From TrEMBL:
Top enzyme class: lyase
The protein's name: fructose-bisphosphate aldolase
Any GO molecular function: fructose-bisphosphate aldolase activity
Gene: fba-2
Classification via SUPFAM superfamilies: Aldolase
Enzyme Commission (EC) number: 4.1.2.13
Family: Belongs to the DeoC/FbaB aldolase family.
Organism phylogeny: Archaea, Methanobacteriati, Methanobacteriota, Stenosarchaea group, Methanomicrobia
Length: 266
């Protein structure tokens, strides 16, 4: 197969739009992201099930242990590479995220897509590109969509949200065979258009980033959709909120019903 199967793509998208709940931060950031509710994967799964998420992003350990809670009820995206955040200085200089789950195993877990973080521009990017080639081609054997976390980073990247660098990251994802690209927000609608342009036929999803003011986050979401993004893959702005259902419902209205921020908050 040279493209992802429609069976999977139609689960991940509703009318061409996607809304994924990301919960890989336990590995990527550690406990500092969590409070006394959201450290528990069951709390996150319940948010996904109560609302209209079209994907739940887990590393393999959560996918295994919490299977009975989510399986068959929300599409699963398995992150197949990952790293912790303890050797921070090294990660800032030369980031590398090893493969921690094979595509074969992701399929056994019932994945509807696989996710891979590529630190574009890292001094050891060549290693990651080889890993990614194997992941991407194996995913094709199964018709599984490939979601690329396209994150320019490392000592040669001075500003990881510079529009030119985010757009370059998106283009790298298109060139390497990603079907969906998860990128960071560039700060404005105008600059984000360059990112969606460079992404070509790959679908662009925006990460949420650090928890921000709800209006600011929703405006960012409205803006990225207006310039061609397909949706969001968001974590902290939802599950660090005191009212994750309110955030989720507003996102649904913007993403699936094309509402304005004001209408979404009514
Ligand atoms: P958020 O919406 O919480 O920012 O999550 C998006 C995400 O890409 C996660 O999937 C991932 O764990 C994290 O951000 C990576 O963040 P960082 O930029 O610190 O590597």
């Amino acid at each position: 197969m040279l493209e992802p199967s429609q069976k999977y793509m139609s689960r991940l998208f509703k009318d061409g739009r996607a809304m994924f709940l990301a919960y890989d931060q336990g590995l990527e950031h550690g406990p500092k992201d969590f409070n006394d509710k959201n450290y528990n994967p069951e709390y996150i799964i319940d948010i996904a099930l109560r609302n209209k998420y079209t994907g739940l992003i887990f590393h393999k350990g959560l996918a295994e242990k919490y299977r009975e809670n989510y399986s068959g009820r929300v599409p699963l995206i398995v992150k197949v590479n990952g790293k912790d955040n303890i050797a921070k200085a090294q990660a800032e200089e030369a980031p590398y995220s090893p493969v921690v789950c094979s595509v074969d195993y992701a399929v056994k877990l019932g994945a509807d897509a696989v996710g891979y973080t590529l630190y574009v521009g890292s001094p050891i990017e060549a290693e990651a590109m080889k890993d990614f080639r194997e992941v991407q081609e194996k995913a094709r054997d199964y018709g599984l969509p490939v979601v690329g976390w396209m994150y320019p980073r490392g000592k040669y990247v001075t500003n990881d949200v510079d529009p030119n660098i985010v757009a370059y990251g998106a283009r790298v994802g298109l060139e390497l065979g990603c079907d969906l690209l998860k990128v960071k927000y560039t700060g404005s609608k105008e600059t984000f258009k360059k990112v969606t342009d460079m992404a070509g036929r790959a679908k662009v999803l925006c990460a949420g980033g650090l928890k921000s003011d709800l209006n600011v986050f929703l405006k960012q979401t409205r803006d990225i959709l207006d310039v061609g993004a397909a949706g969001v893959a968001v974590g902290r702005n939802v599950w660090q909120s005191d009212d994750p259902d309110k955030v989720s419902r507003a996102l649904e209205k913007i993403i699936f019903d094309n509402k304005s921020v004001e209408e979404a908050l009514k």
